[in-house]
Amino acid sequence: DIVMTQTPLSSPVTLGQPASISCRSSQSLVHSDGNTYLSWLQQRPGQPPRLLIYKISNRFSGVPDRFSGSGAGTDFTLKISRVEAEDVGVYYCMQATQFPFTFGPGTKVDIK
Amino acid sequence: EVQLVESGGGLVQPGGSLRLSCAASGFTFSSYSMNWVRQAPGKGLEWVSYISSSGYTIYYADSVKGRFTISRDNAKNSLYLQMNSLRDEDTAVYYCARTGSEFDYWGQGTLVTVSS
């Protein structure tokens, strides 16, 4: 199974300041079809997860452009350019390249 | 508007069974693969099962293989998860999720509690 790790696990941030979360996979997430199925999900308190970024760097419909994704192979990053109060929650990376699909442990983002 | 609404959760004793449903609307259900994902209280996300759009291709997490069965009825726009031989560790909120651009839409979840 592909193991997903995230750093940091907790990230207190100042409103208006940037935040960055790293995600690493135990093996390459490049699929045989050439795509890399690495996504980022946001889960606000008491809410279901919500897709933010898919295939490394594609923002999903309605996602603010302050969210961006980058990376390749086994190392990926989610960046929030300027954190807003509504960004508080837990962020998960996940891979859908190989079954079983796996999630990172989550990074809790809150306001200092 | 894409909507996924789970139902069927509740309290069940260890060794018991439960059937979850996910009613889909707002998109052509038969064109999309679907998944079940669960989240134990205070924990992270765990993928449970996948079913292709036709229903012919199915995968399970090792933790549920042999006990859970995923199925779908494209005529009824519904996804199901039959859960047998339930264990304490199956206690979680169960979400259904559509696989479009990865897991692009999620339901609100249904809580399954396994306890005597």
Largest sheet of chain B: 7 strands, mixed
Question: Assembly state here?
Answer: heterodimer
Put simply, the count of helices of chain B is 0
Instruction: Enumerate how many helices of chain A there are, as a single number.
Output: 0
Strand content of chain A: over 45%
The count of strands of chain B amounts to: 11
Global shape of chain B:
globular
What does the overall shape of chain A look like?
A: globular
Average residue-wise pLDDT of chain A: 97
Largest sheet of chain A: 7 strands, mixed
Order of helices and strands of chain B: EEEEEEEEEEE
In the predicted model, the low-confidence regions of chain A spanning at least 5 consecutive residues are none
**Distance between the amino and carboxyl termini of chain A:** 36 Å
**Radius of gyration of chain A, taken over Cα atoms and rounded to an integer in Å:** 13 Å
Strand content of chain B: over 45%
Q: Gyration radius of chain B, to the nearest Å?
A: 13 Å
Span between N and C termini of chain B?
Answer: 40 Å
Q: Determine the fraction of residues in helical runs of chain A and give it as a percent range.
A: under 10%
Please trace the helix and strand order of chain A, writing H or E for each element: EEEEEEEEEEE
Largest interface: A-B, 24 and 22 residues
